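hey so u asked for the seq, here:
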Amino acid sequence: QVQLVESGGGLVQAGGSLRLSCAASGRTFSSYFMGWFRQAPGKERTFVARITWSNGFTYYADSVKGRFTISRDNAKNTVYLQMNSLKPEDTAVYYCAAGPDSGNWNYWGQGTQVTVSS
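ran it, structure tokens below
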């Protein structure tokens, strides 16, 4: 059974930092893309960042480029999202996802809330 379990969300002031973690289990993800998405209240879920597990290639949404960093730890089967210079508009539920390519996300975590106060 595939599981993606996010952690690390919370309340932070604008300009602060948080690091989200996504622990993956239940299958081999070595050929997969791992991604982070977010959904703000009343809005659709949007892409934030992704990483290719095999070679570490990364890609970011323009809104977070230069502030967020996605990384992975192969030994721990964990993907991270380091979020710096947080803004109130970053407030959302953040979801971890995994899929065989960047257009197909087969597995999702339960989400973790990030709230940035002004």
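The CA atoms of residues 98 and 106 lie 6 Å apart. The chain is about 0% helix and 55% strand.
lmk if thats what u needed
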